[in-house]
Amino acid sequence: LPLLGVVCTAFNTPQHHGIQPVREFSRLTSPTSLNLATQASPDPDSSEKDKNSEEMGEIKNKGLLRLAQLSLEDYEWRQSLFKSNEADRKVEESLARMMGDEASYVRPMDASSETIGPLGLLEKSSVDWLMNVIDEEARRAEKIVGQGGALVRPYEATTPDGELGPLGMVEKKFVDFLENVRQSERIRTEAKVLRPKDLDESQRGPLGKAEMEAVEQIKSIFASEKLRAQQSKKRDRVVRPIDVPGPLGDFEMAVLDVVQAERQRKREKDENPESLFLRPKDSKVKGPLGQLEEQAVEAVRKLTDEERYRLRSVKRLLDENRPMEQDQMTVLGFVETVMVGIIRAPILLFQIVARVKELLDSEPLDEEDSRILETKKQQEDRK
Predict the structure, then answer these.
(1) Buried-most residue among 62, 85, 108, 369 (CB within 10 A)?
(2) Residue 31 has what DSSP assignment?
(3) Which residues contact 110 (CB under 8 A, 6 or more apart)?
(4) What is the pLDDT along the chain (383 residues), one digit of tens a residue?
(5) Which regions of 306-361 does DSSP assign to beta strands (E)?
(6) Would you list the DSSP string of 53-113?
(7) Contacts made by residues 149-153, CB under 8 angstroms, sequence distance 24+
């Protein structure tokens, strides 16, 4: 009978009205009876958790709440570490400025405004974006904790000024896009309009605008091709797309610029047979390929200069922070000293042998050279 009562209670099946012990067992094992039974010996941990739950309100999702709490702890740790590193970096820059030098750095974004290059700018923008994302997620985690584990979407985690973070802006744009599509499609369905572009301009959604742009391009191609066919019929010859305004004419003009620049480069190469190869950027007439190569070469040059400055800074930083130079009695300092000694010993021995061999191969000076040296020595003694 107790087993039957548990099964009936678990599956929420109706019990027979004649089985009184089953009802009694269900009443005794109900949550209310168990709570009354545990009130006699309360657990301090559970009472503390209940108190925290009452302060925060109803807990909606314990897993999400715990994850948000861990996120806040991680955010505080990261903020303290970032502020500490930033303070150390500012101190190093101040000391370097007082000494009239540039502070050593490892990361490309830490270079000065005169030496920073493409990698530094890219890293700086990426780090700023990531810091904004971290701040945004911290605000979202704080709201989740404040609401007792309720889900908070990124576009709901705004700053006190009402500004959105990077993820919130992306989500808001995506949600607005879907909402515009839904509204325009609902209006199109109610108006029984077949194509999205046929809606009124004020009611047209993203699909209608995309279709309208595609239709305009196709119409422009059709119109230019129709005009070209008419001109070809009048002139009894083929009229090229470049002679008629339209998208195909613009494309042919771009291709023709590349072809003409390459032909000119080939003629210059034939006029100078001594040159092995004439690059597009070195041609007298720089076409699209020459301009593109020139921009690529300039970008590579800036990147090379940036990395050269950074390598020099890294070498100076390593020289300043070598363990054997800082404290030779530490483990790292002792190990580095021994390793440097082992590496330098053969070099020093080779230099000693070379010097001794040079002295053994030397010959005595001639009488005239000895007289000249003696005269110079006497003049120096008189002075």
Answers:
(1) 108
(2) H
(3) 89, 103, 120
(4) 333 333 333 334 433 334 344 344 344 344 444 343 333 344 444 444 444 444 445 667 888 888 888 888 888 888 888 888 888 888 888 887 787 777 778 888 888 877 888 888 998 899 899 988 988 898 889 888 888 888 888 888 888 888 888 998 999 999 999 999 999 999 999 988 889 888 888 888 899 999 999 999 899 888 888 888 888 888 888 888 888 888 888 888 888 888 888 888 888 888 887 777 788 888 887 888 888 999 999 999 988 888 888 888 888 887 777 777 777 788 888 888 888 889 888 888 999 999 888 888 777 777 777 788 888 888 888 86
(5) none
(6) HHHH---S-HHHHHHHHHHHHHHHHHHHHHHHHHHHHHHHHHHHHHTTSPPP-SSGGGS-T
(7) 149/59, 149/60, 149/61, 149/62, 149/63, 149/64, 149/65, 149/68, 150/60, 150/61, 150/64, 151/61, 151/64
H or E, element range at 143: helix 118-146
Our CA dihedral for 325, 329, 333, 336, rounded to 10 degrees, sits at: 110
Q: Which two tokens stand for residue 53?
A: 């739950």
Exposed / middle / buried, residue 290 (Cβ in 10 Å: 0-12, 13-18, 19+)? buried
Alpha-carbon distances, residue 58 vs 34, 96, 264 (angstroms): 21, 55, 78
Q: Which tokens sit at 71?
A: 């996120």
Give the integer Cα–Cα distance in Å for 168 and 161: 14
Can you give the pTM of this predicted structure? 0.59
60 touches 147 (CB < 8 A): yes
User: Which residue has tokens 């300043």?
Assistant: 320
Closest CA to 303 of 117, 125, 141, 120: 117
Radius of gyration of the chain (CA): 41
Give the pair of three-digit tokens for residue 372: 């000249």
Cα(187)–Cα(196) distance, integer angstroms: 10
The angle formed by the CA atoms of residues 138, 130 and 173, to the nearest 5 degrees, is: 80
